[in-house]
Structure formats: C-alpha cells, structure tokens
Hints:
3 helices; Methanol Dehydrogenase, Chain A; six-stranded antiparallel sheet; four-stranded antiparallel sheet; mainly beta; single chain
Amino acid sequence: MASNYRLIGLIAAVGLLLAALVVWIRRPREFANPGLVQQAVQSGAANSLAEELPGAWPQWRGPRRDGQIDAGSARGLLGGKPDPMWEVPLGEGYSSPVVVDGRVITLSRSGDEEELQALDARDGSRVWRHAWPTAYTNDYGRGPRATPTVAGGMVFALGAAGRLVAVSLSDGKPVWNVELVGDISKAPPRWGFSGSPLVAGDLVVVQAGPPAGVVAFDRLTGKEVWRASSDPAGYSSPILVRCREGLQLVCLTGLRLLGLDPASGEVLWQQEWPTEFEVNAATPLLWTVPGEGGETLYAFVTSGYGRGCCLVRADKEKGGKFWNASVVYRNTRLRSHFGSPVRMGDLICGFDEQMVTALDWRTGEKRWSKRGYKKGTLLAAGDHLLLLGEDGDLALARPEEKDLRELWRLKVFGDQGPAGKKAWTMPVVAGGMVLVRDEEKLTCLRLAPGKE
C-alpha cells in the first residue's frame, strides 16, 4: 500500500512538473510599458542619426547602413522594370556588393579561396583580385557572409572563417590582415562570421565573439585598439550613430544590444536580447526624438526563431556619461530571420518570417502583412519598398494604409530561379544600377530613366 502511495505521489509530481513546463513554454512573449508607449505616441518626428560614409553604396545597407536608397535611384525604380546590363560569374556566398567610384566590390568564394574583387561598373570586367585560402564548410553554404566596407581609399572585408583583410581600393594590394580565430576568438559562430566591418573614424570594428566580444582595430595598421564585452558574436552588423551628446557604436551581439563609446569600447548602455542559437542577424534601426528633458534614443531590434521584435529606449543620465535603457514594448509581430527592416516615417517594414509586415514603430501594432516573397530582403526607396524574394523575384511596391500594392515584378534569374533555390543576399541600388546575386553569379540591371 505504501508503495502505491509513493507511485501516486511520483506521478502527481511529474504531472505538476509537466504542467509547469507547459506554462513556461506558453509564457507571454508580449510586453508593453504603457507609460513609455504613450510617450512614444506623443513624441515628435523621428530623426535619422546614422553616420554616413562617402560613396554611392560603400558598405552594408548603404551609406548610413539604414537600407535607404537615394532619391535619384528611387525615381529610376519608379520608371519601370530595370533592364539587363551585364552578368558575371561570382561564386559562393551571401556577401552583398558595394559601389564606389565606378567600381563594384564583391566578396565570394571560388574553389578553396575567398576572393575580394573590384569590377568595372560599366561592364563587370575585373579590375583587380585579392584572394586567400579557406577551408570553411557549412551546411548553409561555404562562402563569405559579411559585406565589404570602403573608406579612406581602402577596402575592409571579413571572411566566413574569420580572416579580416584590408586592401588598397586602387589596385587591391594587401595592407594588413588579422585572423580573428586564435587569441581574439575561440571559433567562428555556428554559421560563420557574418557581421560586416564598420569603419568608425580611425577604427575598424567587428564582432569576434568570446573572449574578445566586439573588437576595434586601427584602420591603417590592423593593430588591436580595444575589446568590449565577451558576448558571442551575433550575425548582425554594428552601426555608428551621432546623438546630440556624441557618437555611439551600437551592436547587436548574440545575447544583447550594446551601446558603446567608439573611442574606448566602454559600455554606455545595454539591453538583454537572447535568441535561440544566438541568431541575432538583422541590423538594428536607430533614431532619436526631441523631448523636454533632451534627446531620446530609440533602437528597434528583430530576430527570427520565434523571438520577435523589441523597441528599446535609452536616455542619458543627468550629468553622467552612461545611459538608462528600457523596453518600450516587445512582441512577435515581426520575426526577421536574416533580412533587416527599414523605417519609413512611422512605419517599420520588414520580413516576419515569410510575410512582409508593417508595424507602427510607436506602438508595435501591426498595420498589415502580405505573403508572396517567402524569406527575403528589402530596401526603402522613398515611399516605396524594393523587395527581393527567396525565389529571385525583384519587386517594387508601395505600402498603403492596410496593404502593400505591387507596381512591378521581375524574375532576375529567369524561370530556373537562383542557384541553390535561394536569393538571400540583399540587393544594391546605386549608380544607375540594381545589383543582385545568388551563389553563382552577379547580375547588374540598368535603372529606367527616373520619373520626377
């Protein structure tokens, strides 16, 4: 009889544990601070504050890393579907091209080498090539992920296995290189080093992962200048912003959102944002709004694997150098696996897994969602969106009050679609061109004459 009671007790205990587990799994993932949401609603117009690099499209997501196409190129997109201009073999990788001084800079893998190339923007012919050996392998592709950055007559590029290189923009001759894996980082992230190098004044900043965390190198020599945190590397790219109080370097690691002093790497503020597999891939959006107590910094982050999105508010301590970060809201209405969102006025537009979605940035409420592109990437073209779907469909669409109205759609890779059946690399629009790649080739399209 006693053994039966013990068995019943054990079963009851297991049942309670299972019930607790179910409650934990189904715990609310939505949160809103009513007071902070109300302040966001009542705040003035948002001001873009990302620092700009010179050049048509010199780095990841454009001159300011914000995914905004220039006005002239946006008018060209409104002129109709772009026409084929040239196409060249490229090789493996998800690295986006950049455009500076009539050259297209690409990073890809050919055989057992990663290769950094400069192409003539007029016809795609090669101007120079710099390559290095690699043995990197991964089920989701062996090629590089990070996008090169061009600044001060130099090109900075990060390979999938962690080689950071600096070469001359004019002829591709090497200036310096650093291997992240070793004393700086224990190993590449699970899906390779993906954050694009950021040039901040005389520094080049990358996410390296433990033990170094975020690392800054001297832009001219490659000498290490500082390290910040010991977080695992996220797949997101850092961004440099200028607030009224000065410059900040904002970085989404595998565990948190960090606001750093770019001169020293000192952490000014932070907000936890852990994600399954440490896949924080989308680049944060940042802006400020004026207020009675001074300037308020807002940061919007979004991640996939069911994590969702979050609006963070940071306010500087009175008389101090540190900032206080608070969550305004978080929800699962925008879950961006790898494509970074854009801000268009009061809207934040991005990929919620396989649905293009628009949120009100002030409240986090959903305005609309639309299928038809699978997992993809997008850019803001004035008051329109340029979308590249996973199947290689390039489309221009206009966000409306409750819908997304498509103006045109083009199969960039023809009926056969992109190599590997996935076009995951963000397109580039600059210099009268639209550049789209898969894991075999780079396609250049000519913009139509712009409509005024």
